[in-house]
Amino acid sequence: MNKIKMVIPKGRMYNNVIKLINDSGIIIEINDRQYIPQIKDHEIEAKVMKPKNIAQVIELGSYDIGFMGYDWMYEMDSKAVEVMDLKLDPVKIVAAVPSDLKEKELKNKKITVASEYEKISRMYLEKNNYDYLLIRTYGATEAFPPQDADMIIDNMATGQTLRDHNLKVISEIMDSSTRFIANKSSLKNNWKKKKIEELQMLFTAVLNARGRVMLEMNVPPDKLKQIVDILPCMRSPTVSTLYKEMGYAVKVAVKKEELVRLIPLLKRIGATDLLEYELKKVII
């Protein structure tokens, strides 16, 4: 049987990647102590690994596909192919300093910078003409200032961790999110390429569904055109005649953020029996 080998990132991205895979119908059975999950799709084998190792094992061809943050793809100059941006676990790579430090002070001396990101840090520091000494960290970078570093370069989701350590952001260097990636040679294999494209379609369908809901309503005959004209649907709404031609049933997939405006408006125009429910997949 043909097999495709997948590597799943341990740590920050793990939960959202597992949820995406399972929501796609590729059921994984695993606990947090296992590294070899059981997958119901017999054409897929998987292993859980630290994110920093994923680019290398995919480049070497040990695995065909995986998931990795763009920050580490850039940092490690990854030769893996980005299949799609999943937009999961978005973070910013930022430069941060102690809150009471004036930025101009940084340019008047040789500063100590702590970061896990050597390539990204040197690119930023040299572009901005800093005189610096770089300390490579291995986690807990935010704990270095002020005693052991003047600046850190780290990833930030909400910024709460930086605030808890009395740090302020002075520059946003890069945006990052989880990417679905593949080995170049795997994409040249017809069977593997087809399987990767199928996974991409399923992931896209799940992500599309997360941003939309299905809205159903009954509409009087004289209000149909007015209501259809305001519906922000993907293509066009589904309209069917009610029993004894008492009006119409209208069904449409809409973005979640539009509901707060749309539902009261539909009710005012004359729609009744409105139903809202979640979608599992949306294939456009």
Count of all domains: 3
Name of the CATH superfamily of the largest domain: Periplasmic binding protein-like II
Cα-atom radius of gyration: 25 Å
CATH topology of the largest domain: D-Maltodextrin-Binding Protein, domain 2
Task: Please tally the helical runs, counting DSSP H or I stretches of 4 or more residues.
Answer: 9
Strand order of the largest sheet: 4-1-5-10-6-9-7-8
Can you give the helix content as a percent range? 25-40%
CATH class of the largest domain: Alpha Beta
End-to-end separation in angstroms reads 31 Å
Number of strands: 14
Main beta sheet: 8 strands, mixed
What is the residue-mean pLDDT, rounded to a whole number?
92
Principal-axes shape call = flat
Indicate the low-confidence ranges by residue numbers: none
Determine the strand fraction and express it as a percent band: 25-35%
Structural class: alpha/beta
**Secondary-structure element pattern, one letter each:** EHEEEHEHEHEHEEHEHEHEEHE
CATH architecture of the largest domain: 3-Layer(aba) Sandwich
Describe the structure.
This protein is of the alpha/beta class and 284 residues long. The chain folds into three domains: 4-88 and 177-209, D-Maltodextrin-Binding Protein, domain 2 (3-Layer(aba) Sandwich), CATH 3.40.190; 91-176, D-Maltodextrin-Binding Protein, domain 2; 212-278, Alpha-Beta Plaits (2-Layer Sandwich). 30% of the residues lie in helices and 35% in strands. The chain has nine helices and 14 strands. The strands form three sheets. Strands 4-1-5-10-6-9-7-8 form an eight-stranded mixed beta sheet, with helices on both faces. The chain is flat, with a radius of gyration of 25 Å. The model has no long low-confidence stretch (mean pLDDT 92).
